[in-house]
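Dig into my protein:

:::
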Amino acid sequence: MSGWTDIGSLAELEASSRLESDVEGYRVRVARVNGTLYAFEDRCTHDDSPFDDGPIEDSEIVCPRHGARFCLRTGEALTPPAYEPLRIFEARENAGRIEVRV
């Protein structure tokens, strides 16, 4: 497993409600839900498209194209048409910065 990669400031995350960055070949998105940071691959496993502005409800993200839902804690695909899990990464806040480990 690699080290931690800085992907942006906490202020950026709070302003836009998400951060996105390429980390070791993965397009990673970070969101904060009820105080918890979630980092996940920004790619629906159903059609390989980014989540764009897909809504996050509780700890689930919804694909805006076909409505597939994924658990942000485990990556589990919760509804069709997705059946493969979402790749989940570690995320942390460190001195006002958001870091991800893939």
Notes: The chain has one domain: 5-101. The longest helix spans residues 10-16.
